[in-house]
Sequence to fold (191 residues):
Amino acid sequence: MPEVSTSTLIDVLKVIGMSDQPPIDSHNETEVRFLADAPQDTLRLGTALATILPPGSTVALIGTLGAGKTKLVQAIAAASGVPDGAVTSPTFVLCQPYTGTRTIYHLDAYRLKDEDEFLELGPEEYFESDGLTLIEWADRVERCLPDERIEIRIDVTGEQSRQFRIIPVGAGYQAILQPLQTMLESSVELG
Fold:
């Protein structure tokens, strides 16, 4: 009998309607992959990230226009006690702080002309704080980011579906992969 991966089994169960959990790539030890078929899956991912990320974490969000970067920030913020509707894209403000059970600094590098303009925002202050620093379009300012961070690459896979790749950069965040994967695989409602 051929060996069947866990993610293949979950895919099969989804097709026949026996699982509402998005598939997780459980065989890659350097990243977690999460398929969000609907907006509530992105909320689930945001809740898991808000739970698992330690104070002072920097998260680099990378994806095309409309990929869901702001939606993921909204989900993390909601799980961190920020009121619904408070989080919007900071494209014109460049940095928007939010306070809930923890402080969130939401930055957007989309309209910045170069890395020097990003550095003028004083991101080191955010990186060194106990808050979560979430940066949309982080690939535009990659050389300015901390050596230790989480990268979340978002690919559009359908009208409502997204593939999230959660990648620790630096040894410090490797330890969150297994707990994050476990939370996402759990059938227990998060939050």
